[in-house]
Amino acid sequence: MKPNAQLFKGSLTTIILKLLQEEGRMYGYEITRKVKEASSGTLQLTEGALYPALHKLEAEGLLTVTVEASGNRPRKYYSLTPSGKKEVANKVAELQAFIGQMQSLLNLKPGIG
Questions:
Q1: Angle subtended at Cα 41 by Cα 94 and Cα 54, rounded to the nearest 5 degrees
Q2: Domain with 83 in it: what CATH number?
Q3: Residue 112 lies in a domain
Q4: Residue 111 covered by a domain
Q5: Domain tally, the chain
Q6: What is the pLDDT along the chain (113 residues), one digit of tens a residue?
Q7: Exposure of 65 in the CB half-sphere (CA atoms within 13 A)
Q8: What is the chain's percent helix, strand, coil content, to nearest 5?
């Protein structure tokens, strides 16, 4: 079953922050590749979704960007700021709570309520 794009988009910030927490720093293509690998190819993170999310996180002070030469072109690496490191735990906890609430709702037995 293909994942719902809206559900994925709503979790994107958490996914990005968690990946950067685990990996330390990453560039955009690495993030898209890691999401695809981790989801066995079922989630395809497009540049059109990724870069606005990265820019928003940077504007919020959760990410820092460093530019390094890679071959003949610059590459932007994203990493967590101290605020970003704190926010990872908050976002993951929020998502886990939401998933728990959805499981409770969806596991209702017939005839209850």
A1: 50
A2: 1.10.10.10
A3: no
A4: no
A5: 1
A6: 455 555 656 688 999 999 999 999 999 999 999 998 988 888 888 888 899 999 999 999 999 999 998 888 899 999 999 999 999 999 888 888 888 888 888 886 655 55
A7: 15
A8: 60, 15, 25
